[in-house]
Q: What sequence folds into this?
């Protein structure tokens, strides 16, 4: 299975007069040292991997990355993630891995036709949970969905299924008092001055783009507040929930919301609420981790008394967050 990865870059490549050899082609002129970072934050389907690299002054690398396999000593010709733009050690989150599986990962750097590899590091993904349970202190439920996605039973910031919890702007991980473009973390005051998650120069500050279309873990309110293994659902996972359950506008302990019931007899309740709704009776709106087709908006699931739909909302708005895991 091909894994997807999200890159997080940090500060500057270290230059030194050190000398090293490509793992498979030793010679006395090699000037690159690659160190594989020990994998961390391992879940059933994800792991954070990365590298540090040291090169002699004046040596230009073409590529830095990690490669992984079920076999020892993976190479860049197999599953890999690479970047030509970095500023020092980098980390990346591998996703779509198989549960309860041993993986081998190596960092690598490319200079010309030469590849320089770090040590082989192994990690084992967690076993996939079955049925309902608790993870990192938060309950989840199995709705029998085709993807196997497990849904939390309450919102971030809530302690009960009917608790509305906290509101978050898209890509922010803490609630606040004022939700507006002027207070939004990833812009310079307006929807066309975005500084992160922008794939259209017309919306970016001074033409900025980074082509990121899914929230990185550090900007995911579910991951940041509940820990690794929890995350915000993608818009596809919201659509899967909507299309594979029967939803009903109802109340739970006098709180309005929608109950999503699956054929396996399990269900989740999403309480209504939104920072810009006048009255809790009107409906609710929940963020996904996916960027909308125009980048000033994030994809969301919204519902009222009679309809459930997916679309996009202004990124500065405060929506609820319902975590998922696999």
A:
């Amino acid at each position: 299975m091909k894994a997807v990865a999200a890159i997080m870059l940090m500060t500057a490549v270290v230059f030194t007069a050190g000398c090293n050899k490509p793992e498979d082609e030793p010679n006395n002129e090699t000037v690159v040292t690659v160190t594989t970072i020990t994998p961390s934050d391992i879940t059933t389907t994800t792991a954070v991997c990365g590298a540090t690299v040291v090169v002699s002054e004046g040596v230009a690398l073409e590529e830095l990355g990690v490669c992984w396999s079920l076999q020892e000593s993976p190479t860049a010709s197999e599953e890999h993630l690479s970047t030509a733009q970095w500023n020092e050690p980098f980390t990346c989150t591998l996703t779509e891995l198989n549960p309860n599986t041993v993986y081998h990962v190596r960092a690598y750097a490319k200079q010309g036709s030469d590849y320089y590899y770090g040590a082989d590091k192994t990690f084992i993904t967690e076993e996939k949970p079955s049925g309902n349970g608790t993870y990192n202190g938060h309950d989840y439920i199995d709705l029998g969905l085709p993807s196997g996605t497990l849904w939390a039973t309450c919102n971030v910031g809530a302690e009960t299924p009917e608790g509305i919890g906290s509101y978050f702007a898209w890509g922010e991980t803490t609630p606040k008092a004022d939700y507006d473009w002027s207070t939004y973390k990833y812009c310079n005051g307006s929807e066309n001055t975005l500084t992160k998650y922008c794939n259209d120069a017309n919306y970016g500050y001074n033409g900025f783009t980074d082509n990121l279309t899914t929230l990185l873990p550090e900007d995911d309110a579910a991951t940041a507040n509940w820990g690794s293994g929890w995350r915000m659902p993608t818009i596809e996972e919201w659509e899967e929930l909507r299309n594979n359950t029967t939803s009903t506008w109802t109340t739970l302990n006098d709180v309005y919301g929608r109950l999503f019931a699956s054929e396996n007899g399990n269900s989740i309740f999403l309480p209504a609420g939104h920072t810009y709704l006048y009255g809790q009776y009107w409906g609710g709106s929940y963020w996904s981790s996916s960027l909308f087709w125009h980048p000033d908006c994030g994809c969301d699931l919204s519902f009222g008394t009679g309809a459930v739909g997916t679309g996009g909302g202004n990124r500065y708005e405060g929506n609820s967050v319902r975590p998922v895991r696999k």
Q: What stands out?
A: The radius of gyration is 22 Å.
